[in-house]
Structure to design on (280 residues):
């Protein structure tokens, strides 16, 4: 997690609204979001806004955002595209990588280009779409099946499985599979571009009614990210107290993640959308 220029104001400023009910903010229940949220509520309070943070898997938060159960979240890139008519992009935040990401992996019993049947996670539509894009790039057409049964049952029925988030990190750390492929690295090898896994978005009606609060959320996420990037060892140590990973493991992992949304990130997202249309 290298420092990136933030659009957030200086600490202690209160440029936004000072009243209104708490903003309902979705937080992806993976360790990758720790830098965005570690200081988030402190930074948001400094801007005169309060929040109720709702934890969940990406697919659950995507649904809650569309249904109006939360106001702002980091929907997966595919989920945002599907429901863009009802959402507004908060333009400075994403979850991305430029190369390997570690937490999106195709694990397999055979080399990745030889897999014939892949069990898919239901936790993120973007990761599934990315795998389909990459298989098309490689010229292979494995059977994709929904994840059913226990881990052992899935492993017996399929020669590959897609894991994301903390599940992927644990499997990577355990080293139980003979082969694994980092989808962020594979995307970079194929395109030379950033891969944007999730964007920051607000419900369109919320952003219209409370634009200052929406802007405050985006600024506070970035301010938290900046504080964490400025002290990587302390950030990793704090995260290690909440998640079952070592501080050294998390420091390396956080360094891979990118949270900005500069033009080069948007170029990667546009290419991802173009290829997503091609694979249906």
């Amino acid at each position: 997690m290298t420092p990136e220029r933030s659009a957030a104001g200086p600490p202690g400023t209160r440029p936004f609204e000072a009243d209104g009910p708490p903003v309902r903010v979705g937080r992806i229940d993976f360790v990758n979001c720790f830098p965005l949220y570690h200081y988030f509520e402190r930074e948001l309070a400094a801007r005169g806004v309060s929040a109720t943070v709702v934890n969940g898997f990406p697919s659950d938060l995507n649904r809650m955002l569309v249904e109006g159960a939360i106001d702002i979240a980091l929907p997966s890139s595919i989920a945002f595209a599907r429901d863009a008519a009802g959402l507004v992009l908060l333009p400075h935040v994403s979850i991305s990588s430029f190369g390997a990401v570690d937490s999106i992996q195709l694990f397999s019993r055979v080399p990745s280009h030889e897999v014939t049947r892949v069990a898919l996670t239901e936790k993120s539509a973007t990761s599934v779409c990315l795998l389909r894009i990459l298989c098309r790039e490689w010229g292979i057409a494995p059977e994709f099946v929904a994840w059913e049964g226990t881990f052992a049952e899935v492993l017996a029925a399929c020669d590959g499985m897609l894991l994301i988030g903390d599940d992927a990190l644990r499997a990577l750390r355990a080293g139980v599979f003979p082969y694994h492929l980092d989808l962020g690295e594979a995307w970079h090898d194929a395109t030379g571009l950033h891969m944007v896994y999730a964007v920051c978005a607000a419900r369109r009606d919320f952003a219209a009614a409370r634009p200052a609060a929406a802007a405050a959320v985006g600024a506070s996420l970035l301010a938290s990210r900046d504080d964490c990037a400025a002290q990587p060892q302390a950030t990793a140590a704090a995260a290690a107290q909440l998640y079952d990973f070592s501080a050294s493991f998390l420091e390396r992992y956080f360094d891979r993640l990118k949270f900005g949304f500069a033009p080069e990130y948007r170029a990667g997202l546009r290419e991802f959308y173009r290829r997503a249309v091609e694979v249906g």
About this structure: The chain has two domains: 23-97+194-266, 104-191.
